[in-house]
Task: inverse folding
């Protein structure tokens, strides 16, 4: 078991996938914090209108995710994740540079819905990749750690909104979120699951000889 704990491959892939996940979850934390401030305080939505639309967006995104989520496996999880991270990054850039259209309720609601659907696919693929990384011997603990880190980093993203607010406006925060996704895209090619599985097979074979 000592050899198992010192396995460098597990640590490397854990670091890559966790840090990539941290980036998009931190962006989600920023978004969830500034959305009510933008809609209710800046655009004059009623609190109930915002809450209702968030609910509608969540339901639609979940249904779409359930209906089409299985396609991600057939198309390739990493490929699907790349596509939706790219789309999400582009969406944040569009949000940032179309601030003059924010007062148009239909526009803002449509953008929120599109973001919700893209976020759903990102979540589905990231969770599936987390599960693929988990080793059978410690799968429950390893997956729990991944999920705990995801929740922690979303909270961190929410927490940085206050200091960011002293440095930039909301449109610039969307560019920060886009930038986090750019870094995610740069890290994604470092994930090599075939090599990860080969390394694990060698590890298990060596453990069987002990």
Result:
């Amino acid at each position: 078991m000592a050899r198992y704990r010192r396995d460098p491959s597990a640590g490397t892939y854990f670091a890559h996938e966790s840090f990539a996940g941290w980036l998009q979850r931190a962006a989600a934390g920023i978004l969830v914090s500034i959305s009510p401030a933008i809609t209710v305080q800046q655009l004059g939505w009623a609190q109930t209108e915002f809450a209702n639309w968030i609910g509608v967006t969540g339901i639609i995104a979940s249904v779409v995710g359930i209906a089409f989520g299985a396609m991600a496996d057939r198309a390739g999880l990493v490929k699907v994740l790349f596509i939706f991270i790219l789309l999400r990054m582009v969406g944040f850039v569009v949000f940032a540079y179309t601030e003059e259209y924010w007062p148009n309720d239909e526009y803002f609601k449509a953008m929120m819905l599109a973001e919700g659907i893209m976020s759903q696919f990102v979540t589905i693929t990231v969770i599936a990749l987390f599960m693929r990384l988990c080793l059978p011997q410690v799968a429950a603990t390893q997956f729990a750690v991944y999920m705990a880190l995801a929740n922690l980093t979303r909270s961190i993203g929410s927490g940085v909104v206050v200091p960011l607010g002293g440095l930039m406006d909301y449109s610039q925060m969307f560019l920060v979120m886009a930038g986090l996704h750019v870094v995610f895209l740069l890290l994604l090619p470092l994930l090599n699951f075939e090599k990860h599985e080969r390394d694990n097979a060698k590890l298990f074979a060596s453990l069987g000889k002990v």
